[in-house]
Amino acid sequence: MAIADGIALFGGIALFLFGMQLMGDGLKKVAGNRLEMVLWKLTGTPIKGILLGTAVTAVIQSSSATSAMAVGFVNSGIMTVAQSISIVMGANIGTSVTGWILCLSSFGGDQAGGWISILSTSTISAVVAFIGIMLLMFSKSETRKQVGGIMLGFSVLMYGMSAMSAAVSPLKQSEQFRSMLTMFDNPLIGILVGILITAMLQSNSASIGILQALSVTGAISYASAFPMIMGMGIGASVPVLLSAIGANRDGKRTAYVYLLINVFGTLICTLLFYAVNAVVRFRFMEEDIPINAVNIALINTLYRIAAIIALMPCMKYLEKLTDFLTRNTAEKEPKSKQTIEHLEDRFIEHPTLALAQSRDAICHMARITEENLFRSFELIQNYDAEAAQQVIDAESVVDRYEDSLGTYLIKITGTALNHAQTLEASLFLHTLTDYERISDHSVNIQDCALEIHEKKVTFSDSALNELNVLERALRKIVEIAFQAFLENDLELACKVEPLEEWIDSLCQTAKLNHVSRLQAGSCTLQQGFVFNDLLGNFERIADHCSNIAVALVELHADSFDTHEYLHEVKSRQNSDFTRMYEEYRKEFAL
Questions:
Q1: Do 278 and 425 reside in the same domain of the chain?
Q2: Strand (E) positions, 488-568?
Q3: Residues 534, 491: one domain?
Q4: Helix 222-235 crosses helix 187-201 at what angle (to 10 degrees)?
Q5: How open is the CA angle 143-146-150, to the nearest 5 degrees?
Q6: In a domain, 341, yes or no
Q7: Which residue of 4, 193, 392, 582 shows the fewest CB atoms closer than 10 Å?
Q8: 0.70 exceeded by the pTM?
Q9: Contact call for residues 498 and 584 (beta carbons, < 8 A)
Q10: Is 310 found in the same domain as 359?
Q11: Nearest CA to 548 among 417, 427, 367?
Q12: What is the arithmetic mean of pLDDT over 230-255?
């Protein structure tokens, strides 16, 4: 093989791998995210899990990516190890689809004449590339641009495949090359070579593609291809095992599932196939008949389906074996902190999943904040040291959530997000701060309650009435704003701003009334300080509820122009805003 051919081979491999990545990334953006959510939400029975795992892997073109997602699901506690086993099994079948796509490189014939030449690889690739670049450069639709990227990736993939085939074509005449490949007829050597190739490339699909490219030399026989295909399945476990680094015990168990399925699948299929071959003597195994790209894809698919069928009755034993292999793995964090573990770094490359996990974590943070605020309200007139400590402890938990979520969301925004995902991430970053600030005000109210308790401050009946009315109004605005976010309810969000306006008015009225009481001598300065502190916290809490609701409204309006929205709703005459404002004014009258 000439030096020029060697360089061409490596260039073809590079284009092949780049095209595979480009096509896979485009497929993820167009349909992968939706399928990832389906995988998360709909995995139920083993059959359903296998079908979903197969479908997702066929679309995103990577069994390693699907299995890594399963590791993340289990690590975050939203999926059991038993459920992940069926997904991993499906991923093993789905990865064989790429081999069939690569068979297109041998369709038609560049040497054929007439109309058949139009169907050659070079012609098809050229047409697809032309359409793809037109979509990518001139289309305004983001989805069409992504489809263009997929088409370009396919063309680069096909070109790389053709370049590899052309580079190795001179090896047809090389006896040294043929004699070297005869070593792979030994099942053990063939399996080990398959493992090594895939472990280096970290892609089973890429390994199968290279084997298909080499098949054009006619030197790859069925006897050497079969064990290499099985070994390639085991080698694909390497990136999945790497993805489990830093995972908890169950996450590691899921990674081991991928390895065990391929190891036992290879063992079972090897023993059965060679045992039958020893009795029947398959002709294609005895006479070194060369294998082509289509039959490589066929064997790869049949082997994977057969292995999964053989292992399906053993799913519970696979689960027990992974439990045995990880029996000495200790959990790194106590159970109380596992809610924040839901923020899986493994999902950063899958923004839909990462944002869904962020929403779940923020919703949990919101519930803690709401409970903590209402607990602090109770302390104003009925102070309890134990309940006060609970307020302080809960605020520390909310702070931890803010730190973890803020860091996680910044990582998400650093990836390739579409417009809707960018807006959603912005909403989360906006509301995250507001929840934390409300939690801070809970501690401030607790401090006021402690001062009232220690200094034995008593309020007049009119001051208590004002505090009670404001507390009821605050409970309502918090419930509405938080529920609007939790349920993504735009109608509820629109009810927040009128109530926030009325709470502001109530606070101003209460301050003026308190000045009047001070002047009349019915209240003291000491009472006035703590009373004003409470009013200030109440007003700020309502403001943060308004921020949460406005961000949600603006998200649905595809904008974050908060000031324009507030000006619009407040300036309307006879609007819903005015009607709701009047309703709140009557409900929470002093």
A1: no
A2: none
A3: yes
A4: 40
A5: 135
A6: no
A7: 4
A8: no
A9: yes
A10: no
A11: 427
A12: 82
